[in-house]
Write a structure and sequence with these properties.
The structure is a homotetramer of 203-residue chains. By secondary structure, chain A is an all-alpha fold. Chain A has a domain of 131 residues: Tetracycline Repressor, domain 2, CATH 1.10.357.10. Helices cover 67% and strands 0% of the residues of chain A. Chain A contains 10 helices and no strands. In chain A, helix 2 crosses helix 3 and helix 6 packs across helix 9. The radius of gyration of chain A is 19 Å and the shape is elongated. Chains A and B meet through helix 6, helix 8, helix 9 and helix 10 of A and helix 6, helix 8, helix 9 and helix 10 of B. Chain B binds a DNA duplex (21 and 21 nucleotides) through helix 1 and helix 3.
Chain lengths: 203, 203, 203, 203
DNA sequence: TATGAATGAGTATTCATTCAT
DNA sequence: TATGAATGAATACTCATTCAT
């Protein structure tokens, strides 16, 4: 078994990354429900049993994929809004960064989303009910500030956050359905669309 | 095997409906990829092989679920907009009916959506790439008319349709994550949100 | 259950013949091991369960096919040699009639042979070990007479019968491998071949 | 899954041989169409799924049985005729070796023949229509030479080859019907029988 | 650190048979 | 006489996991 000390060995880190990438590729190529360990390990040019060496289980690997991918997305948007105070500008930065990240990391995003919607834990719980951290916290805080300051129209915060997320996630839907989709047209219109919906102007 | 074409017997119709309902319940309870024929047949209190008697395959059953559920949704919105000409009024009727239908048929909708996003045909094609009919045709036609008449803001039709659909589908996301979710708050805000986003007013 | 009195009703006889023919066609089209009751009944345009009405079991139907087909072959050769006394002439008549019958009834023969070589009874016994009557009795008696009279070379009777049968069955092999095979060339040479092998001349 | 190409491990080779032998035994005991993976695996005292580990499919295993068995038969006859030039002597060596091999390897031969006549590929094609190599090539070449040199009677080559094969295959029929059959009497007479049929003398 | 070997539980599907009508 | 309905047993196959090395 792998010793889970303070730090992972260099080779272990490399192998884990390699397997996560192989899992992304596999899920995109054959879909979640045919992404067996054999397929994933084969793509990583590693023995199937070696996966067990680095991940406690197949589920552990898939969860790591999800976590890794969404952590990167979270970091992108966090970096984008860093240092910006004004809600409208923050939302603009957030939305731009969000769609840009989806555009740039479409393979990883598509795979992670497919895993999230398809996977269930042993007791049947879907993954989006398992998430410990709230991915929408940042978006929520931006909207809260904007509504409080009166630059966005008055709305229940949950509703506003959910709808804004749905709008931005249109980018994900597009790359899922067509991995080569051109997002530039969407990117040109999604922010104005969202700003109008929130009762703001982006000028 | 059941002969197609002529007409289905009373009992066959009943059994097929029963199995479709059992499939919906099963998918909601254990998720798509654990919804085995054994689970479905068990919930229908029927032998596993009886499923094969009424449906050529498991895929046939699941596709029937999807078709049945979305046909009902399509009929709801079609009925709602029937006789209304003006784009703004038509969109209002459409959106209201859409969310109301999701609210009322949440079990069926949640299951059908999970099937659509999770299922792959034998050659690996996801279901949303297989659909022959365009579910968004009605919404698209409404938006086209509104944009043409200048009551909605100028936007590429594909983008407008996709974003509008994403907004409305927020209702589905909510019932998927929590089958007992209260949609009333969302219902009160989603139409104004969408109208603002499209540059229209609903007064 | 069908009453097994002294005689079968007209309709029962017709149905049984119909099913036997359907079984022949089915075995030829899809092979023994895919010749399910559903396939056979379908080709006979009869409900699957109706087969059970006329035959105790699927095995009963297949056995009837075998018996019917080989009875006809036996009758052909018996008729052919009838009234002929001289062994060489009898063998000539037998062999000619045998190959001619195979040629004429190739569909039925091919199916019956496939059943015989493929089918096993419930306890695993192959069909050729089940046969109660000896299909080779006539051929054996002809050869015995010929050897006794010194017109055929001296040979153990079993060996002679078996080899003669093998030679004649080449016709069956040909129609099995290719249902449209032209047997005329074989027919022209098989009798001289067999006669030479037995040390006789056919002039 | 087992990697092909490079080279098989010692244990893999052993397991495959073991499974092929188990398949032979199983087919002989219960017949082709009851020779399920469970039966075969049970006789090999191995888990059913282990069969899948060494053979891509049941069909792959059975085809390997056929190929192995007929390759050995082909090698026997090839070795027997090696270095012999004269057609009569070559045919004598061929026929003797053929029947001797059937006698010695009767279990394997019986099983392989039953597989060949019973098995169908997924699209329904019988095995003897699939064979790429021609098992009768050597026999054919011997007969062609003999006919050309005038030591065998003039006959169409296809007919001569087919009939000679049928004669020799009488040995297979005997061991199939009775695995303990004594072939010595047949062996004493089959070659003279065949030589007479071909118009040759074996002195 | 890595893997080949092996397995048990689970998958959809096929099919001859039974039975009430 | 005939059948639609239903089933249980069996089928090949898949796959995550375990383990000795």
């Amino acid at each position: 078994m792998v010793v889970r000390g303070s730090s992972r060995s260099f080779i272990e880190t490399a192998r884990r990354r390699q397997l996560i990438e192989a899992a992304v590729v596999t899920v995109n190529e054959v879909g979640y429900h045919r992404a067996s360990l054999a397929e994933i390990a084969g793509r990583a040019r590693i023995a199937k049993s070696a996966v067990a060496y680095y991940f406690a289980s197949k589920e552990g690997l898939l969860l790591d994929v999800v976590q890794t991918v969404f952590a990167a997305l979270g970091e992108s948007v966090l970096t984008a809004v860093d240092g910006i105070d004004e809600p409208v500008a923050r939302l603009l930065a957030y939305a731009d960064a969000y769609v840009a990240h989806v555009d740039a990391e479409r393979q990883a995003i598509a795979a992670a989303v497919e895993i999230v919607v398809s996977h269930r834990t042993a007791d049947g719980t879907p993954l989006y009910l398992v998430e410990d951290e709230d991915d929408t916290a940042l978006l929520r805080s931006i909207l809260r500030a904007g509504i409080d300051q009166g630059v966005f129209v008055e709305m229940p915060l949950d509703v506003a956050t959910g709808l804004a997320e749905s709008v931005l996630d249109r980018a994900i839907t597009l790359v899922q359905r067509n991995s080569g989709a051109d997002l530039s047209v969407l990117r040109a219109h999604v922010v104005p669309f969202l700003f109008r919906a929130l009762g703001a102007t982006d000028d």
